[in-house]
Structure formats: structure tokens, C-alpha cells
């Protein structure tokens, strides 16, 4: 019996749900019950009747699933963290709040659970422009991604203060460059260019559409175009190719090491264990964060 069959058998025995982020290895995406962005995965975790959720992604996503569902949420590798989330602590946010009293605090879902306790609203890459635009104040504190903060300020005409000033995802802001997108555009002049808002402004300016991975999946499905340049983590192309046979997707070759820590062996190990990989959070953090995450889902 191959490892995929062993996972399916253990999953049935444990009444488990396997969720995979869009940036996971192809074989992990293929074994999952659902592949999506962090918001879509939280929704699936809530909808499902499964008591055990195997979350293949990075820790902030699994923590959000735990806060929203109260289920037994496990990760095949607890060292799969997001370096950008680690750039903003709750104490940092409190310092910004002291300097800018009265400003609305909007926290991106790519943040630690502790940082989320300081949020007035939590947003995703799908709705951050609307959340910031709808904020009741002209000054908004936003973190941890400074590229998204700058974009929201340009679009919404508000004063958006990035917390920290240089918060970034290395994969989107360093590995997806103007040169690489320019080369792909030369090679594929008919392709629609989709770029993630965590990319730097000069890369965003080369895109036809700037959107999160959920938006990329929708546009790829609905568009008449046959070719797409995908400005996000490379493995997104696996999902897009599977969902859109007959269309071509050109990635930039940007890989997130943390997203690759989850393996089939790790999934099988946590499925066969009672405690391995369990996500746990302080009850006070769950109490403080849940309402803002609920509003994000709504
Ligand atoms: S791709 Fe960037 S934002 Fe996503 S987990 Fe990796 S480092 Fe964090």
C-alpha cells in the first residue's frame, strides 16, 4: 500500500479533514480534501463535521482555524511558521497605538495570534482594501505587510501607517521581481498578468490584476484568456493547472521554504498519533481574537 492509501485509510478511521494551502507541495495538495487560501480553509474547517483537522500550511493559519472552530487542529510540522508574521508583535502594535491614538487598527491574517488580539478588524488579501476604505477613521494602522499598506493608502486615499515600516514577505517582495515578470511578459505577450499585493509597488504596476490567491483562482476560471503569468508562490500554479486544463500558467519560480515543510510522511504521522502536531493557544488569546476573526469571515 502506498503512502497516499495509508493516509486515506487513517483519515477515514479518525474522521479527519485534510486542508492544504495553495502554496503546499503538489502531492500534499493532491491528498487534501480542500485546497485554498487561509480564509477559504478556515471556512471549510468550520463547515466540516470532522473533529480532527490536519492543517497543511503555516502556524498562523492553523491557529486561526483553532480559534474559529475549537476543533482538534494539527500541523504535520509545527516549525512551519511565517517569517512575515513574526515581524509584528502585540507589543509593537501597542506602541503604534500610543503614538496614533484613535486610529483604526487593521491586522492582516498573516500575523501571530497575539498580534491579532490588538486588531479592531482582521483582513485578508481579498478584502484589505475594502476594510481599510470602510474604516471609520482617516488614519489606519496596518500590519505586518508594508507593500499592502502602501497600496491601500494609494487606493483608499487614507493615511495608512505600516507596522512595521518595512514588514514584508521575502518570497513576494524579493523573489518576484520586475525583471522576472518583464521576461515572462516578453515570452508570453498574450498572457494576463496576476500579481499578489505582497509584491513591491513596481511589480504590482506591471500587473493586469493585483489580487490574492482566491482572486487568482476565480479569474483563471472565469477569464477567456488562455495564458496567465502568476506573480505569487510557485505552487499556486499546480492548483490552477488542475482546475483549468487547456489553459497555461507561467510561474516566477518563487518558493516558500516554510510552506514546503509539510510532507505526506508528516501528515500520516499526525493522523496516527493522539497528540502530535496539536495547535494550542491561551484561552485569553482565543477569547480576544475570535470576534475579529468572526467579522472577517462575515
Ligand atoms: S509565502 Fe510569504 S507570507 Fe506566505 S507563509 Fe511564506 S513567508 Fe509567509
* Poorly predicted runs of 5 or more residues: none
Q: What is the count of distinct domains?
A: 3
Please provide the count of β strands. Answer: 12
CATH class descriptor of the largest domain: Alpha Beta
Oligomer: single chain
Beta-strand portion reads: 15-25%
Distance N to C terminus? 43 Å
Placed side by side, the strands forming the largest sheet appear as 2-1-3-4
Helix content: 40-55%
Order of helices and strands: HEHEHEHEHEHEHEHEHHEHEHEHEHH
CA gyration radius, whole angstroms: 19 Å
Bound molecules: iron/sulfur cluster
Q: What does the model show?
A:
With 298 residues, the protein is α/β, with parallel strands linked by helices. The chain has 3 domains: 3-81 and 259-280, NadA-like (Rossmann fold, 3-Layer(aba) Sandwich); 85-168, Rossmann fold; 176-254, 3-Layer(aba) Sandwich (Rossmann fold). It is built from 15 helices and 12 strands. It has helices spanning 3-14, 26-31, 38-47, 59-69, 90-99, 113-116, 128-134, 146-156, 170-174, 178-187, 201-204, 213-222, 236-243, 264-271, 283-297, and strands spanning 16-21, 34-36, 52-56, 72-74, 104-108, 121-123, 139-143, 159-162, 192-195, 209-210, 227-231, 248-251. The strands form 3 sheets. The chain has a 4-stranded parallel sheet with strand order 2-1-3-4, with helices on both faces. The protein has a 4-stranded parallel sheet with strand order 6-5-7-8, sandwiched between helices. Strand 1, helix 2 and strand 2 form a beta-alpha-beta unit. Helix 7 crosses helix 8 (146-156). The protein starts with a helix and ends with a helix. The model has no long low-confidence stretch (mean pLDDT 97). Iron/sulfur cluster (SF4) binds at residues 23, 58, 82-84, 110, 169, 171-172, 233, 256, 258-259.
Amino acid at each position: 500500500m502506498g503512502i497516499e492509501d495509508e493516509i486515506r485509510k487513517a483519515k477515514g478511521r479518525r474522521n479527519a479533514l485534510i486542508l492544504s494551502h495553495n502554496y503546499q507541495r503538489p502531492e500534499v495538495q493532491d491528498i487534501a480534501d480542500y485546497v485554498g487560501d487561509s480564509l477559504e480553509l478556515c471556512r471549510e474547517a468550520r463547515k466540516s463535521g470532522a473533529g480532527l483537522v490536519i492543517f497543511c500550511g503555516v502556524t498562523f493559519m492553523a491557529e486561526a482555524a483553532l480559534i474559529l472552530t475549537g476543533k482538534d487542529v494539527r500541523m504535520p510540522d509545527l516549525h512551519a511558521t511565517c517569517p512575515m508574521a513574526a515581524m509584528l508583535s502585540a507589543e509593537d502594535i501597542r506602541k503604534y497605538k500610543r503614538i496614533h491614538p484613535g486610529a483604526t487598527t487593521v491586522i492582516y491574517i498573516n500575523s501571530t495570534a497575539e498580534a491579532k488580539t490588538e486588531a479592531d478588524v482582521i483582513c485578508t488579501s481579498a478584502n484589505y482594501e475594502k476594510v481599510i476604505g470602510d474604516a471609520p477613521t482617516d488614519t489606519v494602522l496596518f500590519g505586518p505587510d508594508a507593500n499592502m499598506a502602501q497600496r491601500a493608502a494609494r487606493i483608499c486615499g487614507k493615511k495608512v501607517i505600516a507596522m512595521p515600516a518595512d514588514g514584508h514577505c521575502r518570497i513576494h517582495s524579493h523573489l518576484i521581481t520586475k525583471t522576472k515578470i518583464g521576461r515572462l511578459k516578453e515570452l508570453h505577450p498574450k498572457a494576463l498578468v496576476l500579481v499578489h499585493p505582497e509584491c513591491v509597488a513596481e511589480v504590482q504596476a506591471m500587473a493586469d490584476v493585483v489580487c490574492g490567491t482566491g482572486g487568482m483562482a476565480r479569474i483563471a476560471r472565469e477569464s477567456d484568456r488562455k495564458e496567465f503569468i502568476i506573480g505569487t508562490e510557485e505552487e499556486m500554479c499546480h492548483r490552477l493547472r488542475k482546475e483549468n486544463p487547456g489553459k497555461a500558467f507561467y510561474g516566477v519560480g518563487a518558493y516558500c521554504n516554510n510552506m514546503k515543510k509539510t510532507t505526506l510522511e508528516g501528515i500520516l504521522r499526525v493522523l496516527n498519533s493522539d497528540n502530535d502536531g496539536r495547535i494550542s493557544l491561551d484561552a485569553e488569546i482565543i477569547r480576544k481574537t475570535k470576534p475579529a476573526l468572526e467579522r472577517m469571515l462575515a
